[in-house]
Amino acid sequence: MDQLPKHDIANPALAAEGVRRIEWADRCMPVLRQVRERFAEHRPFAGVRFAACMHVTTETANLMRTLHAGGAEIALCASNPLSTQDDVTAALVHEYGISVFARTGVDRDTYYQHINSALDIQPDYVFDDGCDLVNTLHTSRTELIENIKAGCEETTTGVQRLRQMSRDGALRFPMVAVNDTDTKHMFDNRYGTGQSSMDAIMRATNVLFAGRTVVVAGFGYCGQGLAERAAGLGAQVIVTEIDATKALDALMQGYRVMPMRDAAPLGDIFITVTSNSGVLRPEHFETMKDGAILANAGHFDVEVDVVGLEKMAVEKRTGIRHRTDEYVLPSGRRLLLVAEGRLVNLGAAEGHPAAVMDMSFSDQALTAEWLIGSHTDLSPGVHEVPSEIDKEVARLKLAAEGVSIDVLTDDQQAYLSGWQHGS
């Protein structure tokens, strides 16, 4: 490539390995591949600039390739310091010509420096995963807002933040909650988080789940996936919740339900997925078993009170295993923290399987295309993805899997569309 795009990456020599892994993921992303082929033909994003703050993984790389094929100019930064795959950043810059600002394990200042570098593109549209980019726009880069037409948010935590901004009248442009599509939260959150979080904890600790007690904090779609996978591996599952309906759902599915104070002395493995802070706190650490494993599957590193754990510990042994630190308490009990309390499936493993991200990122790509023609009809605030996009992604995924489904007959359609039919 004659002229490289602007970038800040770790090691250009990793580009060839990155290409191999990106192409491997692409094999499992047939829906996004079809979208990319159509975008390459019709170029819906010609002359359009995107700033994206996302996990820089092989699957994200294929989304960036798809937007780029459609004519977009892109600047990508990381939405989590531990989730960046350095071979992927090298490939995106050196092989695919996409501007990337991301390196594994950067500190907080560099993290925000990268966000600002991505925003320097002066974007027309934004992609966010956790709302840090949108938050930066509304605090320190407000001069860019008047040019931004709309954006997409990928994850539950980010959507929650955006809705809070909207309620406060602070959100100044339309954002679409891609996270809330059925093909995202029903599959990405449930099956993706369920599998990839187990994978990460096993890679980090080599723990046997069978016969262990796993405490899942939060029983949304992600929590359901975690509980299902843990039970499938032979674990006894305890669920903690603050929502009575979700707690009842967990009980009816056969899980034990109790407050964290009661679960803390029972658990062998704790996984938080609540999008809230202080879910595991010193009062819980004080009663946990020797060797208990702590992991967070929520977006931000606030669910496990790591600062409180640091203050309690008389000794910290870093890197005792892959992405695992050991904290020794005054009693001599040891607690194991995976991925520094950050998003465990990307901090200690590779994140969701590509086959799941195929749907999530197809939602993203098709929503971006829809926004090109529809952003003027949207007011500042949080908006839903049109249902026809969600259904189209599901239809394409089924077709890629070789699965067909029934079609309504004319009589059935008339029955469902009318009210005249009696019982």
From TrEMBL:
Cofactor annotation remark: Binds 1 NAD(+) per subunit.
Spell out the subcellular localization from the entry: Cytoplasm
Which pathway is this protein engaged in?
Answer: Amino-acid biosynthesis; L-homocysteine biosynthesis; L-homocysteine from S-adenosyl-L-homocysteine: step 1/1
GO molecular function terms noted in the UniProt entry: hydrolase activity
Chain ranges of the S-adenosyl-L-homocysteine hydrolase NAD binding domain? 189-351
- PANTHER family of this UniProt entry? ADENOSYLHOMOCYSTEINASE (PTHR23420)
Which CDD domains does its entry note?
SAHH
Per the UniProt record, one Pfam family is AdoHcyase_NAD
Record's keyword terms, sorted: Cytoplasm, Hydrolase, NAD, One-carbon metabolism
The principal location of this protein is cytoplasm
Q: What is its EC number?
A: 3.13.2.1
* Protein's UniProt name: Adenosylhomocysteinase
Q: Which family does it belong to?
A: Belongs to the adenosylhomocysteinase family.
**Physiological role:** May play a key role in the regulation of the intracellular concentration of adenosylhomocysteine.
* UniProt entry tagged with the keyword Hydrolase: yes
Q: Where does substrate bind?
A: 57, 129, 154, 184, 188
Cofactor field: NAD(+)
Q: Which domain of life does this protein belong to? A: Bacteria
Which reactions fall under this protein's catalytic activity?
Answer: S-adenosyl-L-homocysteine + H2O = L-homocysteine + adenosine
Positions contributing to NAD(+) binding? 155-157, 189, 218-223, 241, 276, 297-299, 345
Output the PROSITE patterns linked to this UniProt entry.
ADOHCYASE_1
